[in-house]
């Protein structure tokens, strides 16, 4: 089955939205971290050892296709049964150098987690931005990052083979290849992701059909064909982290075999999406270290690699990315 992020505009913390032009306009998800323990799913919380003073966690992954959404909350003792305290009285602003671009405003969605948002700010490529977070009783938190110039998907193929699965399920085994032309002479970092659109439906007694909100689902598995390909499997969502160390300036193709299933009596499949994110170094290092902790420990918060942190006077991640997406119909 799939691991799912639903598209329910601002009703879930993890959410995905996209333009019909096949470019993802928004991909919001937050992974809040400590230096040695982290929040990986939207339901988990980050704990600190007993008697530790709570720290502030700040998280924002942002792109050129939307403004900023910044999450701020406090860590808590590992023995605490209290709910996570999300900070609603912070002063959050974004700057370019010394120039104040915008003061962020608090958004409190129904049945979801509060965050701070810009109203008119849109990041430019390769321009460094600073966020500044002020909370009473804490030192001023700052972080700097930029949105890299996007690298296009040069050639993409998707070859599905549909067969009966268990019960009412339909099994889809697929082969896909993805090509890109890496810019020469600079370090480039990528995150390659795969999704299937699914729309739930219900047939009512009058034979009318009610369709629910479309969501994006991760495949059950996506495996690289060449075991020596310079790709790092991101176990959480069957995606791949890529650094151009071994193919700087080259045209390169990656090949994958994958699988997923869906129930056609409950959902209608839409497009299969292949997304290439060109990401900042801070984005790459954060997700690489996050993945390494899971691989080494099998769970959050164990001993092992420290999760990358680029927040001054706090913990978390402030990192930019750009996104290019190709889509295919299951019948193609």
Description of the molecule:
The chain has 332 residues and is mainly beta. The protein has two domains: 3-148 and 279-326, no CATH class; 153-276, no CATH class. It contains one helix and 25 strands. The chain has one helix at 281-297; strands at 3-6, 15-17, 26-28, 47-48, 56-63, 69-74, 76-77, 85-86, 91-96, 99-103, 105-107, 115-117, 129-134, 141-145, 153-164, 170-181, 189-203, 209-211, 215-218, 221-224, 232-234, 239-243, 251-262, 267-279, 315-329. Mean pLDDT is 83; it is low at 1-51.
The radius of gyration is 21 Å
Instruction: Give the DSSP E fraction (strand runs of 2 or more residues).
Output: over 45%
- Mean pLDDT across residues: 83
Distance between the termini: 22 Å
Please mark out the parts with pLDDT under 50 across 5 or more consecutive residues, or reply none: 1-51
The number of helical segments is 1
Can you write the helix and strand succession as a string? EEEEEEEEEEEEEEEEEEEEEEEEHE
Number of strands: 25
Q: Structural class of the helices, strands and pairings? A: mainly beta
Q: Give a quick account of the main beta sheet: strands, pairing sense, barrel closure.
A: 13 strands, mixed
How many discrete domains? 2
**Please, what is the oligomeric state?**
single chain
**Shape assignment:** globular
């Amino acid at each position: 089955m799939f691991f799912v992020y639903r598209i329910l505009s601002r009703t879930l913390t993890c959410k995905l939205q996209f333009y019909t032009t096949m470019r993802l306009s928004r991909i919001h998800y937050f992974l809040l971290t400590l230096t040695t323990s982290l929040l990986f799913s939207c339901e988990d919380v980050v704990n600190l050892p007993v008697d530790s003073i709570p720290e502030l966690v700040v998280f924002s992954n942002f792109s050129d296709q939307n403004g900023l959404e910044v999450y701020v909350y406090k860590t808590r003792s590992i023995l605490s049964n209290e709910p996570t305290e999300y900070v609603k009285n912070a002063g959050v602003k974004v700057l370019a150098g010394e120039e104040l671009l915008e003061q962020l405003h608090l958004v409190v969605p129904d049945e979801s987690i509060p965050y701070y948002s810009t109203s008119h700010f849109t990041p430019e490529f390769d321009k460094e931005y600073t966020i500044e977070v002020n909370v009473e009783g804490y030192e001023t938190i700052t972080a700097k990052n930029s949105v890299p110039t996007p690298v296009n998907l040069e050639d993409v193929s998707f070859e599905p083979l549909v067969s009966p699965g268990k019960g009412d399920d339909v099994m889809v085994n697929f082969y896909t290849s993805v090509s890109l032309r890496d810019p020469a002479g600079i370090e480039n970092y990528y995150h390659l992701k795969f999704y299937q659109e699914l729309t739930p439906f219900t047939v009512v007694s009058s034979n009318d059909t009610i369709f629910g909100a479309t969501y994006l689902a991760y495949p059950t598995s996506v495996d690289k064909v060449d075991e020596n390909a310079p790709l790092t499997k991101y176990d959480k969502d069957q995606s791949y982290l890529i650094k151009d160390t071994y193919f700087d300036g080259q045209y390169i193709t990656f090949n994958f075999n994958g699988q997923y299933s869906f129930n056609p009596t409950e959902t209608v499949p839409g497009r299969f999406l292949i997304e290439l994110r060109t990401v900042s170094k801070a984005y790459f290092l954060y997700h690489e270290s996050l993945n390494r902790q899971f691989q080494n420990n099998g769970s959050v918060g164990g001993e092992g690699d420290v999760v990358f942190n680029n927040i001054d006077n706090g913990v978390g991640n402030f990192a930019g990315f750009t996104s290019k997406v190709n889509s295919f119909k299951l019948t193609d």
